[in-house]
Amino acid sequence: MQYLKLKTKSWKLKEESKEMVIICRICEKKFMEAVFKEHSAECYELNNWKNELQKKNAEVTKLCELAFEKKQELSVNAVIEKYCFSSVKLLFISQFINKDER
Ligand SMILES: [Zn+2]
User: For position 94, what pLDDT does the model report?
Assistant: First the structure.
């Protein structure tokens, strides 16, 4: 008789616990009601961190792209500068040559 009472009690507990399963709206995992409150707060915080991390990643990616563009611009400028200087030098030299020829 005692055994049956215990058995019934455990069935009732099982039934009750089945009813108290909650699905988290953030991560969509199932939790028992007792655990859910704690999970909910942690999941919310974790989700905020994830969003923050995504934002920071996007910022870093954007900055990397900007840095790459700047680098390209600088090397193009360096080439132009080098080319201009050598053209100026050539002009300078050619003027001297022309003077000698006159
Ligand atoms: Zn969750």
Answer: 84
Is 87 a domain residue? yes
Residue 6 forms part of a structural domain: no
Which residues constitute the domain of residue 88?
15-101
Q: Which backbone phi and psi does 27 adopt, to 5 degrees? A: -100, -5
pLDDT at residue 19, rounded to an integer:
62
Say if residue 15's pLDDT is above 70: no
How many folded domains does the chain comprise? 1
Q: How far is the CA of 58 from the centre of ligand 1 (A)?
A: 24
Record the tokens describing residue 58, joined without a space: 């996007």
Cα–ligand 1 centroid distance for 17 (angstroms)? 19
Residue 40 within any structural domain of the chain = yes
Ligand 1 mean position, distance from CA 49 (Å): 13
Distance 48 CA to ligand 1 centre (A): 12
- The answer to whether the CB of 31 falls within 8 A of the CB of 24 is yes
Q: 52 pLDDT exceeds 90? A: yes
